[in-house]
Amino acid sequence: MVPEEGITIKQSPIFVRSYDLMAWLVPHTLAFPKSQRGVLARQVQVHLFGLHEALVDAGLSDDPMPHLRRADSSLTKLRTYLRLCHDLHLLSLAQYGYASQQLEQIGRLLGGWFKALDKRSAVPAG
Predict the structure, then answer these.
(1) Residues near 18 by beta carbon (within 8 Å), at least 6 away in sequence
(2) Alpha helix (H) residue ranges in the chain
(3) Among 8, 33, 57, 119, which one is most buried in terms of CB atoms within 10 A?
(4) What rounded mean pLDDT belongs to the chain?
C-alpha cells in the first residue's frame, strides 16, 4: 500500500502494524533468558527495527523499491528467528502464533505495495 498524498505514515496500515508488532515483541524479547538476550533476542530486535525503518524509509522516498526489498529481507529473517524462538521455547505457541499472524499481515501489505509500484512503473508516461 503506497502512502497516498495526504495520508501520513502513522495512518497507513503497514506502519501501524509494524509499530504494534514492535511494541508487543520488544518486551517479550527482554524477558528471554540472559543467555539468549545477547544472541537471539538481539537478532529479533535488529530485524524488527530494520523492518520498520525500511518501511518508513520507503514511505519517505521518491524511489521506495530498494527500501521495500530491504524490508522484505528483514521480514524473512524475522520469520525464521521467531520460529527458532518458538522451537527453543522462548515464545509460547500462542505468542508465536500471534507474531506470525502479524508478520503475515505485514507481508501481505508489503506485497500489495510492491504490486502497486509494479503497476505504476508499467503504465506508459504521457
Answers:
(1) 51, 52, 55, 106
(2) 13-30, 34-36, 42-60, 65-87, 93-122
(3) 57
(4) 89
- The CATH number given to 9-120 is 1.20.1440.60
How far is it, in rounded angstroms, from Cα 116 to Cα 114? 6
The band of 123, judged by pLDDT with boundaries at 50, 70 and 90, is: low
- The alpha-carbon radius of gyration of the chain (Å, integer) is 16
What does the pLDDT look like over 29-80, one tens digit per residue? 999 999 998 899 999 999 999 999 999 999 999 999 999 999 999 999 999 9
**Separation of alpha carbons 95 and 88, rounded Å:** 13
Residue 114, all three cell numbers: 510492491
The per-residue pLDDT for 117 is 87
Domains of the chain: which residue ranges? 9-120
Residues making up the chain, counted from first to last: 126
- The three cell numbers locating residue 13: 496500515
User: Cell 521467531, residue?
Assistant: 82
Question: Across residues 12-20, what is the average pLDDT?
Answer: 93
